[in-house]
Amino acid sequence: MKLVILGRDGTLNQYRDDHVKSPEELRPLPGALESVARLNHHGWHTVLATNQPGIGRGLLDMGALNAVHLRLNELLQAAGGRLDAAFFCPHTPEEGCNCRKPLPGLIEQIGERFGADLSSVHMVGASLRDLQTAAAAGCVPHLLRGDRLAGVPESMIAEILAQVPGAQVHQDLPAFTDWLIQFERRERAARGERLEQDTEAGAL
Length: 204
Hints:
By secondary structure, this protein is of the alpha/beta class.
């Protein structure tokens, strides 16, 4: 299975220190929804993996989180894309669960649900925690600068990448999507497979 695991805040939508607590606070990042559509068009399943400690802290409840994800899916559908599933950890760090990133429990759940070999799964996020989660689960790690790391000096980005060998950095989700599509083309060409014409459905 061709599977990409996406973080949410700072990857698909604008990052908020006080959490996204309602659909009205959800602000998709430029090109992010169209990027999911492009990935889908090229045969990639996309799954959300997100820490939501605001639930454990009482800042929002399950109804509010479901409403946020429903709105996200509506926006994705309008752009021609979809998420196959949304996995989340509702716990605070103090609860000591195994599903809170950077521990691999949430990603292992995704692997089991989809029968995916995690070593071939690309995991995309906007923090060191996301890279550490990918490494712990055996996924291919990717870091996005996005809005969360905007303005962070190159030296700090280098320090983050040095902590997770093999991690790659991209400006945003559209840049990652371009990279993955080209990477797959090179891999298929090396195997001598015929490449279909790219019509880029869902792209801007």
